[in-house]
Task: inverse folding
């Protein structure tokens, strides 16, 4: 069984220097490398670099996945935009870790298939699907961090040596607003981390409405005019020189905080235990299953009604149906032959419902005798069980 591994890195806040680029190129002779991007696929062997060090030193985002199910997404943001204390409540083993290095906070989202699990042959992601998460986090939207915690809870099973009361009392981190209305990148992350959709639905019950996506430009302009001139000059200089992250996300975060419109955690709702959330997810899943079964039953009844109506029409117009069969057979082509056989099977059922199966058998016998020189048609009739009784 062949292996497949995908590695992608992206520098967002600034391009790599010449020395940094040479260092990265020394790690792979086959990768697609530029001052802002690194992409490589491995069908054998492994990446020679250290993903953690590369993220700490030069890159702002990293994506990895393998066809046996391992997945990893790493994001780096300046701690001025997202301090460690904001992310730490959401960190949980095997799902999300964070650490600070040289003025940056690094987030490591991961998912590992359980031992003996099936290989994932259909995984296909690109880093571009996730990079907007940095801007969302910088603006105070912590939904992606909560999704990582839910991913861990999805896989969380109490160990035999863990006291069940302790497991039941483990509580969720602060709940961000908008869990019921994820952004595109957040939904992709939920899929990437295999978050149970029923667990997400249960968790969203304690989440407020999503913040408005539209920006009030007039209000933002008014707020920007109140900023001290020296601060605006510093932001423009950093943006022009590329010596600091783009000022947009941090300005929007500050503006939303000043306007009390962040997507930050809700403090009004009691934080639930892991056991409560899992029980709520079970209820959601059970109700979803019941609704699906009800919908399938309704679809079956509608299909049966349509079938009976079709057979009623055939019973009332058998002569026209036999003429249609003759016309289809007369075309001497595979497609019309198949349609004719289907119509004959329906006719047989219509005659059975009318209590005159002998009449159908007689007419079918006559039809087979008339077209016995058409072996392709005869074979189709026989395969469909349309033989003389």
Result:
């Amino acid at each position: 069984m062949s292996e497949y591994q995908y590695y992608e890195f992206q520098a967002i806040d600034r391009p790599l220097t010449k020395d940094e680029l040479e260092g990265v190129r020394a790690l792979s002779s086959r990768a697609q490398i530029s001052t802002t991007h690194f992409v490589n696929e491995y069908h054998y062997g492994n990446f020679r670099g250290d993903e953690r060090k590369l993220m700490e030193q030069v890159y702002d985002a990293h994506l990895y996945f393998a066809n046996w199910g391992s997945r990893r997404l790493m994001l780096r943001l300046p701690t001025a935009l997202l301090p460690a204390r904001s992310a730490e409540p959401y960190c949980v083993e095997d799902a999300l870790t964070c650490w600070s290095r040289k003025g940056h906070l690094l987030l490591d989202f991961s998912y590992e298939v359980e031992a003996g699990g099936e290989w994932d042959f259909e995984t296909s992601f690109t880093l571009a699907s996730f990079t907007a998460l940095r801007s969302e986090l910088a603006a105070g939207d912590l939904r992606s961090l909560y999704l990582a915690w839910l991913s861990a809870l999805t896989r969380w099973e109490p160990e035999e040596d863990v006291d069940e009361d302790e497991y039941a009392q483990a509580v969720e981190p602060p709940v961000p607003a908008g869990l019921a209305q994820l952004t595109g990148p957040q939904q992709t992350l939920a899929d990437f981390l295999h978050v149970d959709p029923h667990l997400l639905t249960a968790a969203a019950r304690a989440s407020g409405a999503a913040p408005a996506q539209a920006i009030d430009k007039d209000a933002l302009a008014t707020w920007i005019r109140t900023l001290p001139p020296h601060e605006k000059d510093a932001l423009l200089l950093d943006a022009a020189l590329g010596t600091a992250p783009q000022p947009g996300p941090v300005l929007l975060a500050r503006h939303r905080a000043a306007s009390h419109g962040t997507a930050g955690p809700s403090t009004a709702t009691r934080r639930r235990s892991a056991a409560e959330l899992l029980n709520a997810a079970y209820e959601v899943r059970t109700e979803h299953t019941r609704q699906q079964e009800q919908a399938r039953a309704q679809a079956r009844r509608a299909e049966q009604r349509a079938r009976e109506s079709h057979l009623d029409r055939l019973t009332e117009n058998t002569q026209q149906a036999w003429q249609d069969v003759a016309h289809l057979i007369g075309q001497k082509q595979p497609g019309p032959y198949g349609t004719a056989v289907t119509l004959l099977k329906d006719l047989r059922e219509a005659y059975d419902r009318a209590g005159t199966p002998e009449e159908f058998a007689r007419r079918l016998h006559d039809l087979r005798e008339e077209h016995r020189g058409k072996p392709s048609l005869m074979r189709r009739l026989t395969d469909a069980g349309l033989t003389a009784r």
